Amino acid sequence: MKKYLKYLLILPPALLCMVAVIFSHKQKQPATDTIKAYTEFDRSAWLLTQGWNAELLYSRAVTIPYEFNTNTYQTYANLQIQQRLPLERYAGTRGVLYTYELENSPLYAELLTADGILIGAQCYLPEESITLDIHGKEFKIN
To answer: Which of 1, 16, 105, 121 has the fewest CB atoms below 10 angstroms from its CB?
Structure first.
């Protein structure tokens, strides 16, 4: 009987610890699962999952900076962290920036890819210099 009592006293704290560990890992998830962006179909399909029908306007090769030390780059990097996109892992590499016109909206979208992976995304109004997330909402650092 004493043996069972010992287990009854140890079991509840052990279960609480397990639950705490599980939930703490869920809160500190790294960047999102890899989003494939090899083809125009992949990129358009991803934009559609975000609520946008889009038409590709153009693309251009870019170099992702090694450091995001200007206000503009740091804001962009913070936006990608919030959106759980792995921009920082690709610092210093070459990428491709795709610009899209969004249907039924004055907004444009930019998707940044490297090695066929989506690493950055944002919306913007061509005549304004505010940072918008991929859903068109203004991004502000808390």
So the answer is: 1
